[in-house]
Amino acid sequence: MLTTKLKNCTNEMNDWGQQLRNKYRREIEECRAKLELLRNTTIGSNQGRFEEVNRRISILLAQEEAFWKQRATVYWLRDGDTNSRFFHATASARKKRNEITKLKNEEGNTMDSQHELCDIAMSYFKQLFSPGQQSTDTVLDYIAPTITDINNEQLIAPFQIKEF
C-alpha cells in the first residue's frame, strides 16, 4: 500500500517536473514567434509591444536558467565533483549538442564534409558582415536609447580646464 502511494507520488512529481520544463520551452518559443512577427511588420506602433515581448522573453529565460541551475546544484551536491557518470554524460551531451555536423548551402543542399561546412560558414559570415544596402533606421527604432539628450550635450561639450 505504501509503496504504491510512493510510486504514484513519484509519477506525479515527474509529470509535474516535465510540465514545468515544457512550460518554459513552450512560452519561450511563443515569445520568439511573436518577436519574429513583430520584427517583420514595420508599423511603428508595434515598438511598445516588441519591447513588452522582449522583456517577457528575458524574464522567461532567467526563470528557466534558475530552474536548470537549481537542478544542476542538486546533482552537484549529490554526486560531488567526481568523475561520475553524471558529469561524463553532461560533458558528452554538451559536446554533441554543440557540434555542427550538417549545414545547408545557399541552394538548399545539405552538406556534411568538414571542408564544405567551412566554406558555407565562411560565405555566410562574409555576406553577413559585408556592407549592405539595408537601412539602419528600422533597426534603431527598436533599440531603447540609454543616453539622454542632457547627457549627450555634456558628452559633446568642449573640454574645459576647470573640469580637473
Q: Can you characterise this structure?
A:
The chain is an all-alpha fold. The protein has a domain of 81 residues. Helices cover 70% and strands 2% of the residues. It has a two-stranded antiparallel sheet. Helix 1 runs antiparallel to helix 2. The relative contact order is 0.05.
Summarize the topology.
Elements: H1 2-40, H2 46-79, H3 85-98, E1 103-104, E2 110-111, H4 114-129, H5 137-140, H6 149-156
Antiparallel strand pairs: 1-2
Helix pairs in contact: 1-2
Q: Which sequence of SSEs, written as H and E, runs from N to C? A: HHHEEHHH
Kindly estimate the percentage of residues that lie in beta strands according to DSSP: under 5%
Strand arrangement, major sheet:
1-2
Distance between the termini: 81 Å
Unreliable spans are none
Shape: extended
Short description:
The chain has 164 residues and is an all-alpha fold.
Task: Write a concise keyword list for the protein shown above.
164 residues, mainly alpha, two-stranded antiparallel ribbon, 6 helices, 2 strands, 70% helix, extended
